[in-house]
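DM between two lab members

TW: hey, do you still have the Acetyltransferase entry open?
JB: yeah, one sec
JB: this one, 262 aa:
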Amino acid sequence: MFDIDTYLKHIGYTGTREPTAENLRELHKKHMMTVPFDNSRNAPKGLAIWDDVDAGADVFYEALVVERRGGICHEHCGLFRAVLTEFGYDVDIISSGVRGANGEFGHDLEHMLSVVRIGDELWLADVGFAGPSFIEPVRVSQDVQSQCGFDYRVVENAPYLVLERRTRGGEWLAVYRFMLQERELTEWKAIAAGENDDPFWHWAGEMIAAGTLIYGRAYENGQLLLVGRRHLKAEDGRDETRVLAKTDEYQAAIRHILLQKA
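TW: and the structure you got?
JB:
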């Protein structure tokens, strides 16, 4: 059963339990450094990944904290939302469509994240996106916000807002687009039940079922991401990519990201 004290000990958080921006930043970063992204249990499921979207914080806590496994967006989002609610934050579920390699965005319900209201400010809290993205929450603002040498901003492209990221000396690139529209878990359940006729989902399900494994985790000053054999290290404003052709090197990278011993 979900236990806030055990969760905070697990991620190494020792601060106050006030719903402040500073505490949100620390919780967000420590979660991403401690609880990896790992779709290996879910990759073969296709759109059935949404079957347990409403399983609840107890189930996600058991998998991600007690069993110390990694998870995917709705598992991370569900657990972290429960934590923020315990702290007294005003939290809503929202969704986003992720920019693909071809520059086009996925379906609006492709990814799940949270928006947190603190005073008059809105913050994106997204601990379940493999990346590269942000490791501390980002204000919903056109103001440039810097983390680990990377810049972030949220710009308008009506009817959407777009999260953009920029490497050191690089150009702004979209990460995903979203609307500040509170979503219901039943919307994702409808996808799993085959009630959504959008052809995108049939294509996406086939891609997911192809079994591409994705692992990701943040560390103090950057992020690691492994998509198939493609390894990305995002640090000091630079994205460094290489292909891990050797099996032992690939397995070692997985263990490192998942915080597993050799």
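TW: got it. The CA atoms of residues 255 and 261 lie 7 Å apart. The domain at 4-257 is CATH 3.30.2140.20 (Arylamine N-acetyltransferase fold).
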